């Protein structure tokens, strides 16, 4: 007597904004009619913080996990104890997406030390003999796009052996000059990062030019703040000894799940 | 810390990271430096306010493209040469004997969910274990020492496994395969093979692109199929989301080349997302190619992008142009240090290296030139002119632009070719490309000679015979098209001079053949053709038998098609005889029948075109010579005999039947020619018919003894006729053919006078004896039929004046003058024959089948008697009535025929002297059926 439980959201891309309604259906399918002790559905939004072992040491990191912050929490009973008929049963549901109390709904974000996750969970309780069933379904929350039009501030940059930091023997470095610009210093997250880089000259042939997207996460805890930078993605924009003097485009699409707009709260910060 | 981060990252999105062994490229940790407070970006921001952007964003290509904006959207027409035609050409041309290798990082599914059971083990340990597992799985497969064929097979295997993975819903695996494949394109070891590798791998990319497109297409045609001209609004959310996911996944591929190629491969899917998607993506991808350092890899990436662009959005010309301008901008890299080092390492010469670019650049230019305005092409050309070392570009321009465009500027091009650096791109290739354009379009008339001279000056200096030939072959067309035999002759002489040393022609037969073909296309006047001194020596270069015959055949075909008037030109005759002899001499025991037939037809075609007019003797001696030359081909001999017979008849016509001593001797010579030629034929029926025909001709020319000899010869070989002969490959009974021949023969015999030394009706008796002795088929009436048909002859012979006669030949009528002895001789013969026939009729009573035959034979004998017999004779009249009855006895006669026969007899009976027939009719009863 198998039964499968599934949650289907109405939106294919599972992206919701604050104030909207998360709607969908719970699908139950079983071969024959089945007894159950109630079906419940809950919606939860949680910020998980973890301390980096680098900032606080291994043991502290292990024990001193900061308590998760709940952003949203709803629970409804979908069906009282009873019987569901055989075949496929669809139970529609709707949740308003509103923050709990004075909390703010942050964007979904999967980081290393900070995780912001929203999910729906459906539980089906059954008699002692049969196992309870449950199903998780993550959905994604995006902030409302900013109303004010951001004026992009282009920035030019130059890289030479002299501009490099943390180099021990500057004299050992080959001579080179790389210029370029980014079209904006603060980017709209749904838009790609763009710009150009020009290799003006380089003594040795270039092997590769890569673009690294880095996040900086800051978690607050008892001993102060822990700040960590980790790589999100690395994209090669040039391979081999590129033509000197020719602008090479910089272009990167932000991976939506692993990035979020720069965020600062009392307890944690995320920036790219 | 770095390790930790990496592991986490790997676990999450390893599925899209193309390389599982991701290694941070930075030697020092750049991240920690970021935390030191001095953010490099803000630093730059402060510094760069003064430096204005000297780097224009769009690069050099933008403005021109915009100017030439295409007004309306035009799809690609049939006149666009598609990629598929280039494909095979490239694969055949760019080959290597070096060993190749494929390096694939596959099979490591780092992306799979972490095993919950191992949560106790620390993360570091787990990573190590995974690494070990991966090694065991052989995730990094490196296949070394592959031959070119192996390589192609491997790629095809990958293509298959891509399709399999796709159909078994392993989309991630499919994507991995594609990424790995496109990564192979960054490997330029064994550089000679690179163009072919490109072809093979882009096939996979095309497959992938199609699979993704079709998948999304089916997703959105769920309720009903999308129209072909759908827009993004018609696409449902799920399909859009899937499509978007593909693009996101591809955008996060780490390496540049796979990211570029895979996105280009699924570019068509942009249609599902937005209307302007393709329009925005193409320029971005075009710019992205700038990041490829290796100029060859970049050029091919551009070619691929243009190919995709032409397919999905042919109206977007700008990015095509932008691609070309970027190519020009980076062109100096071709002679850069990195490239030179690589060439040195692989021991590849610069000219060879440069030719590797041709397919890519040709393709890009072809896309650009397609339906492009003249002005754009001129501008392109000007830009190329300004480049250093532009031979390669020049070559591609001449190949890709419209021939008319090139032809009108031929002199310019020659100038540019002259200015090219000798060490770079081989010049003969440039002239080859120019020649190809000039073969299709005409340059201005006044420049033609200069062009030819300039071009040939260079071509003749090419040392390598193969290169020389490739180039010369192309220019022959131009020469033939615009110049006279003198120039063509010079060209031929030059080719001979180049190809003879070291028997270089042996490797160039296809090109040499093509030269002949081109000459034949333009020169149809064979007297001009053969008066080229170098034409026959040129033919002598074809020393391999099969090729030689092929060439001769092609010449003959053109001759037969275009030589409309008979000729006696000794130049043509000599040359053609030579050519025909070559064809004839190729015949041996192994030659197929079909081949022999076609050769014979060609030679016959030639013989029929030979005529010496009134010089008959010359014609005869030509035939004698031809007979000696073509003795192995029977059809040719047959034709020769016909020709000679015709000659004899022509002579007769000229002298109006009155032969002088000289003409008489000549026609006898003709007869002699035939008489000695016929026995060498193997086909018995050919011999029979030719004997008869020649006999008739001899008779017509009053050569009585010759005629006698012919007819006697025919009679004497009658017993040799086999019972069955093969007709068009099938074995058939020879009986009907033989009967036909004998009837024909009998008709001739009427006019043949008896030989004074032999007895009366010597030939007729001889024939009938042969017929009697011949082993006819069992159950056959053929013999009797011959007897029946001999009766009318005998009847005709007994007439006072014969039905027909030959002028100036006395037939038996005059020889015997109705001598009673002669007549009784005939009567005796008739009696014998009729007796034989009746005997035969008596035997035909056994079964239904023979009764039917009896009826038919009896009726035909009745017919003969009625027509030729004198029915006033009672005995004869009684016999005919009996025959009538016999034929009607068993009801096998066709009533209609009987009725008509009766009617005709009645009709005849009304004529004077025929009253006796009326009696006969009384006794001929129609059989009553009812």
Automatic annotation (TrEMBL), chain A:
Annotated keywords: Endosome
Gene Ontology biological-process annotations? intracellular protein transport; nervous system development
Location of the protein in the cell: Endosome
Q: Which GO terms describe its cellular component?
A: endosome
> What organism, scientifically named, is this protein from?
Fundulus heteroclitus (Killifish)
- Which Pfam families does UniProt cross-reference here? Vps26 (PF03643)
Quaternary organization: Component of the commander complex that is essential for endosomal recycling of transmembrane cargos; the commander complex is composed of the CCC subcomplex and the retriever subcomplex. Component of the heterotrimeric retriever complex consisting of VPS26C, VPS29 and VPS35L; within the complex interacts with VPS35L. Interacts with SNX17 (via C-terminus); the interaction is direct and associates SNX17 with the retriever complex. Interacts with SNX31; the interaction is direct.
Q: Which SUPFAM superfamilies match?
A: E set domains
Q: What is this protein called?
A: Vacuolar protein sorting-associated protein 26C
Q: Family membership, please give it.
A: Belongs to the VPS26 family.
Q: Do you know which PANTHER family this protein is assigned to?
A: VACUOLAR PROTEIN SORTING 26 RELATED
Question: Primary place of residence?
Answer: other
Q: Which InterPro entries match?
A: Arrestin-like_C, Ig_E-set, Vps26-related
What does the function comment of this entry state?
Component of the commander complex that is essential for endosomal recycling of transmembrane cargos; the commander complex is composed of the CCC subcomplex and the retriever subcomplex. Component of the retriever complex, which is a heterotrimeric complex related to retromer cargo-selective complex (CSC) and essential for retromer-independent retrieval and recycling of numerous cargos such as integrin alpha-5/beta-1 (ITGA5:ITGB1). The recruitment of the retriever complex to the endosomal membrane involves CCC and WASH complexes.
TrEMBL record, chain B:
Q: Name one GO biological process term.
A: endocytic recycling
**Keywords, alphabetical:** Endosome, Protein transport, Transport
Under the heading PANTHER family, the entry gives:
ESOPHAGEAL CANCER ASSOCIATED PROTEIN, VPS35 ENDOSOMAL PROTEIN-SORTING FACTOR-LIKE
Location(s) in or outside the cell: Endosome
Please tell me whether the keyword Transport is annotated for this protein.
yes
Ranges annotated as biased composition (Low complexity): 13-25, 45-56
User: What family is it from?
Assistant: Belongs to the VPS35L family.
Tell me the segments the record calls region Disordered. 1-73
Q: Which GO cellular component does the record give, naming just one?
A: endosome
The identity of this protein, by name, is VPS35 endosomal protein-sorting factor-like
Q: Which InterPro entries match?
A: ARM-type_fold, VPS35L
Broad class of where this protein is predominantly found: other
């Amino acid at each position: 007597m198998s039964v499968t439980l599934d949650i289907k959201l109405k939106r294919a891309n599972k992206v919701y904004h604050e104030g909207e309604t998360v709607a969908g259906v719970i699908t139950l399918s079983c071969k024959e009619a089945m007894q159950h002790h109630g079906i419940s559905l809950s919606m939860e939004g949680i910020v998980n913080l973890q301390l980096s072992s680098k900032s606080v040491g291994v043991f502290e990191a292990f024990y001193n996990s900061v308590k998760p912050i709940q952003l949203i929490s709803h629970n409804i009973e979908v069906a009282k104890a009873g019987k569901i008929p055989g075949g496929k049963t669809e139970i529609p549901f709707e949740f308003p997406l509103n923050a709990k109390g004075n909390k703010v709904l942050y964007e979904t974000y999967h980081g290393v030390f900070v995780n912001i996750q929203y999910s729906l969970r459906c539980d089906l309780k059954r008699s002692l003999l049969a196992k309870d069933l449950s199903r998780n379904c993550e959905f994604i929350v995006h902030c409302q796009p900013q109303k004010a039009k951001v004026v992009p501030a282009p920035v030019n940059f130059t890289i030479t052996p002299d501009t490099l930091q943390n180099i021990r023997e500057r004299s050992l470095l080959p001579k080179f000059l790389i210029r370029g610009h980014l079209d904006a210093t603060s980017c709209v997250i749904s838009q790609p990062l763009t710009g150009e880089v020009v290799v003006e000259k380089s003594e040795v042939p270039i092997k590769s030019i890569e673009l690294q997207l880095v996040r900086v996460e800051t978690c607050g805890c008892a001993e102060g703040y822990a700040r960590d930078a980790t790589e999100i993605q690395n994209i090669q924009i040039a391979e081999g000894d590129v033509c000197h003097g020719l602008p090479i485009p910089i272009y990167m699409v932000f991976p939506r799940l692993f990035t979020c707009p720069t965020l600062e709260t009392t307890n944690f910060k995320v920036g790219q | 810390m770095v390790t930790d981060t990496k592991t986490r990252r790997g676990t999450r999105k390893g599925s899209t990271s193309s390389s599982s062994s991701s290694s941070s490229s930075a030697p020092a940790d750049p991240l920690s430096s970021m935390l030191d407070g001095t953010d490099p970006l803000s630093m730059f921001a402060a510094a760069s306010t003064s430096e204005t952007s000297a780097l224009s964003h769009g690069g050099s290509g933008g403005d021109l493209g915009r100017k030439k904006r295409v007004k309306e959207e035009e799809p690609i027409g049939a006149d666009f040469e598609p990629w598929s035609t280039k494909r095979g050409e490239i694969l055949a041309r760019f080959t290597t004997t070096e060993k190749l290798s494929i390096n694939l990082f596959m099979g490591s599914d780092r992306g799979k969910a972490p095993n919950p059971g191992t949560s106790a083990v620390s993360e570091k340990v787990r990573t190590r274990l995974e690494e070990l597992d991966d090694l065991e799985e052989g995730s990094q497969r490196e296949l070394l020492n592959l031959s070119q064929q192996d390589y192609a097979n491997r790629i095809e295997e990958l293509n298959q496994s891509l399709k399999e993975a796709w159909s078994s819903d392993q989309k991630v695996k499919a994507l991995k395969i594609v990424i790995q494949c496109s990564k192979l394109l960054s490997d330029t070891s064994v550089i000679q093979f690179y163009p072919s590798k490109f072809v093979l791998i882009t096939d996979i990319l095309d497959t992938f692109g199609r699979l993704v497109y079709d998948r999304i297409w089916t997703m959105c045609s769920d309720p009903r199929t999308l129209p072909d001209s759908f827009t993004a609004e018609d696409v449902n959310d799920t399909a859009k989301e899937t499509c978007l996911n593909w693009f996101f996944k591809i955008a996060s591929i780490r390496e540049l080349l796979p990211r570029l190629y895979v996105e280009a491969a699924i570019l068509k899917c942009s249609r599902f997302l937005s209307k302007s998607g393709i329009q925005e993506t193409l320029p971005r991808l075009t710019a992205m190619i700038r990041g490829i350092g290796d100029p060859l890899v970049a050029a091919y990436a551009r070619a691929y992008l243009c190919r995709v662009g032409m397919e999905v959005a042919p109206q977007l010309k700008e990015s095509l142009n932008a691609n070309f301008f970027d190519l020009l901008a980076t062109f100096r890299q071709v002679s850069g240090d990195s490239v030179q080092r690589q060439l040195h390492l692989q021991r590849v010469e610069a000219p060879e290296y440069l030719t590797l670019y041709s397919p890519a650049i040709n393709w890009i230019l072809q896309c650009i030139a397609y339906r492009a305005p003249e002005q754009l092409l001129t501008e392109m050309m000007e830009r190329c002119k300004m480049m250093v070392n532009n031979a390669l570009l020049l070559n591609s321009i001449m190949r890709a632009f419209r021939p008319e465009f090139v032809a009108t500027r031929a002199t310019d091009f020659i100038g540019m070719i002259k200015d090219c650096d000798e060490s770079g791109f081989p010049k003969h290739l440039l002239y080859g490309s120019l020649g190809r354009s000039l073969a299709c379009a005409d340059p201005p008339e006044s420049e033609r000679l200069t062009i030819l001279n300039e071009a040939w000056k260079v071509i003749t200096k090419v040392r390598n015979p193969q290169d020389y030939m490739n180039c010369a072959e192309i220019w022959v067309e131009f020469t033939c098209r615009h110049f006279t035999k003198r120039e063509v002759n010079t060209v031929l002489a030059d080719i001979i001079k180049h190809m003879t040393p070291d028997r270089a022609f042996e490797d160039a037969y296809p090109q040499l053949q093509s030269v002949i073909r081109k000459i034949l296309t333009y020169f149809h006047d064979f007297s001009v053709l053969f008066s080229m001194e170098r034409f026959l020596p040129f033919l002598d270069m074809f020393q391999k038998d099969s090729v030689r015959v092929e060439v001769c055949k092609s010449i003959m075909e053109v001759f037969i098609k275009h030589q409309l008037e008979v000729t006696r030109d000794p130049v043509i005759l000599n040359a053609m005889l030579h050519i025909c002899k070559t064809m004839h001499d190729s015949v041996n025991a192994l030659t197929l029948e079909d081949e022999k037939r076609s050769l014979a037809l060609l030679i016959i075609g030639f013989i029929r075109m030979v005529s010496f007019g009134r010089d008959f003797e010359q014609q005869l001696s030509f035939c004698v010579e031809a007979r000696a030359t073509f003795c192995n081909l029977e059809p040719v001999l047959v034709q020769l005999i016909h020709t000679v017979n015709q000659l004899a008849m022509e002579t007769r016509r000229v002298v109006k039947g009155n032969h002088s001593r000289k003409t008489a001797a000549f026609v006898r010579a003709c007869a002699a020619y035939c008489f000695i030629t016929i026995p060498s034929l193997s086909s018995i029926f050919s011999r029979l018919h030719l004997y008869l025909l020649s006999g008739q001709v001899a008779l017509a020319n009053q050569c009585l003894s010759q005629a006698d000899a012919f007819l006697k010869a025919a009679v004497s070989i009658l017993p040799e006729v086999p019972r069955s002969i093969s007709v068009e490959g099938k074995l058939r009974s020879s009986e009907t053919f033989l009967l036909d021949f004998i009837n024909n023969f009998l008709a001739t015999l009427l006019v043949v006078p008896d030989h004074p030394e032999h007895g009366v009706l010597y030939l007729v008796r001889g024939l009938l004896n042969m017929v009697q002795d011949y082993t006819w088929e069992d159950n056959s009436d053929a013999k009797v039929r011959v007897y029946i048909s001999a009766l009318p002859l005998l009847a005709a012979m007994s007439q006072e004046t014969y039905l027909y006669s030959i002028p100036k030949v006395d037939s038996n009528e005059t020889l015997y003058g109705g001598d009673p002895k002669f007549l009784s001789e005939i009567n005796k013969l008739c009696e014998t024959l009729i007796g034989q026939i009746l005997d035969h009729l008596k035997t035909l009573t056994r079964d239904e089948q023979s009764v039917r035959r009896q009826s038919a034979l009896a009726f035909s004998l009745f017919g003969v008697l009625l027509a030729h017999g004198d029915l006033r004779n009672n005995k004869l009249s009684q016999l005919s009535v009996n025959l009538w009855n016999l034929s009607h006895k068993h009801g096998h006669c066709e009533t209609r025929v009987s009725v008509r026969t009766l009617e005709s007899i009645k009709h005849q009976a009304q004529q004077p002297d025929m009253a006796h027939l009326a009696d006969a009719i009384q006794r001929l009863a129609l059989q009553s059926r009812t």
